[in-house]
Each structure stands twice: as C-alpha cells, then as structure tokens.
Design brief:
By secondary structure, the chain is mainly α. The protein has 14 helices and 6 strands. α9 runs parallel beside α11. The longest helix has 15 residues.
Length: 270
C-alpha cells in the first residue's frame, strides 16, 4: 500500500463535503489512504468498522456519490482529480471488469453512467477499445515500457511550459501568489483546457478591479491556489471598483479583457 496520497481542496473544502457527518469525512480520509493507484478499495467495510458509526458513514459517502460501489469493490469518485502517477509507475488494473464499468469525465472524476466523449477507465489505462476486433475479449495488454529515460526540467522550467498558468502567475497580486509548485497543482486540477485558461485570465482582470480585492489594501485577496481550486476563477465578482479617468492606470490589455467578459451572455453571472 502506498504511503502518500493527495487530496483536492476542490472536494474536501466543498459545501457538499462539509455537509457530511464528521465520521463520514474521517472515513473518507482513511479510504483514500487505503485505495490502490486507481482509487479502488476492497476492504472498505473493514475500515468502516474501525470508526464509530462507520457503517452509516460509508453508506452516506456512497449515497452522496463521494464513493461508487461495484459489488465488493468501492471506488473513490474524484480520485483522478487529486492523484495521478507517471507512466513508468503505473501498475496493471486490479479489477479490470470494474474498470470497464467506470468512465472518466472531462474534469477527471469517475462516473458509473457513460457519457458522450468519456472513455472507460479500462480504455484509458490500457489503450484498448472494448470492441476492438483484434482483442475481442478485452484482455489487458501490458504497454511497452522500454522507453528512453526522460529527465524533467528542474526549477520552474516545467511550470513555465503552461502559457496560461504563467500569465496568471505574473498577473496575480505578487504577495498572494503562494508557492508556485502548489499553485501549479491547483491549476492542473481546476483548468482543463486552453479555453478555461483564457477564461481564468479574463476573470482575473475583473477580480483585480473588484471592491472585495481593493478593500483594506488587498488583505481579502485569496492565495492563487485557493482562487483556482475553489472555482472562484469562473465567477464574476459582485461589485466592481474600476477607477475612472486617466489616473486609473488601466492598460489596454486589461480593458479589452474586462470588456470582453462583461459582454459575454449579456454580462450575467455564470
């Protein structure tokens, strides 16, 4: 069993998670630590029995779809949002039959309901289409891992390879950027494509001119990682504090981004 697992604040700091009973929240933590590299758990009942009211806590997690149940196997629904492994560390699927019934959504969470454009976890892991003529029985095939070793760039070079992340980093209030590595993880979990990255950049221009961020010298500006993981990047601020006249120091790029966002959908909140 692995000794390290990750949690996403997008999940554990959400209102639905806080609405769970405290024993269910505690059980969720233990189950994530017990899960295999794909978020599968075969001893959830044993873990639940170690916590007071654990059986009802497990039932609550399943009913609220933080966990998906497949017979005796429990799957952490949001596993891939917080946890991922490099290709050279991946292990074969422990439960390939269950993996064929799990689908990976665009936001990287699992679902037991097939949706358009979503691949099964089995296909994602093996690269094998379930109806492939050359593999009609869906036998897992080990990928060729005899690839030359690849060394990752050190320092911030790898972080800077993401253009919208770098733009957000440079534009965000300097004292509230936080640690770049942690912020990059929040970006990868929250921003799914270049379109979302561009949207976040445009929203940042609005938030930088909002009353909330301008109040009391900017002490209410959240750290960039929190602004991303809590989904604030996708919400327009309630009130703007855009200065007027030549003293406002609004650049052409900021004005263009603000005007573009305000014009979308008639300026209504998403």
């Amino acid at each position: 069993m692995a000794e390290r697992r990750m949690f996403s604040a997008k999940i554990t700091e959400s209102d639905p998670f806080y609405s769970l009973p405290t024993n269910a929240q505690a059980l969720y933590l233990h189950l994530v630590m017990l899960a295999d590299d794909d978020g599968f758990i075969n001893n959830a009942i044993s873990a639940a029995n170690r916590i007071p009211g654990g059986k009802s806590a497990l039932k609550s997690l399943i009913q609220n779809r933080f966990l998906l149940q497949f017979d005796t196997v429990i799957v952490v629904k949001h596993w891939r949002i917080a946890n991922s492994l490099k290709n050279d560390r991946l292990k074969p699927l422990s439960y390939p039959d269950v993996a064929k019934r799990i689908f990976v959504k665009q936001n990287r969470s699992y679902t037991d309901h097939p949706a358009g454009g979503c691949k099964s976890l089995y296909e994602v892991k093996t690269g094998i289409h379930l109806e492939s003529a050359w593999n009609p029985f869906g036998f897992p095939i080990e990928k060729n891992r005899k690839e030359p070793k690849r060394t990752e760039p050190k320092g911030t070079e790898q972080l800077d390879s993401m253009p919208w992340f770098q733009k957000l980093w440079e534009e965000y209030p300097e004292g509230r950027r936080g640690k770049k590595a942690e912020t990059k993880e929040a970006y990868e979990a929250s921003i799914q494509d270049d379109q979302s990255g561009a949207k976040a950049f445009e929203m940042l221009q609005l938030w930088k001119r909002s009353e909330q961020w301008a109040k009391d010298g900017g002490q209410y500006v959240p750290y960039l990682a929190n602004w991303l993981s809590r989904g604030t990047w996708s919400v327009r601020p309630g009130k703007m504090a855009i200065p007027t006249g030549g003293s406002g120091n609004l650049g052409a790029a900021e004005l263009e981004a603000i005007q573009r966002v305000l014009q979308e959908e008639g300026g209504g909140q998403e």
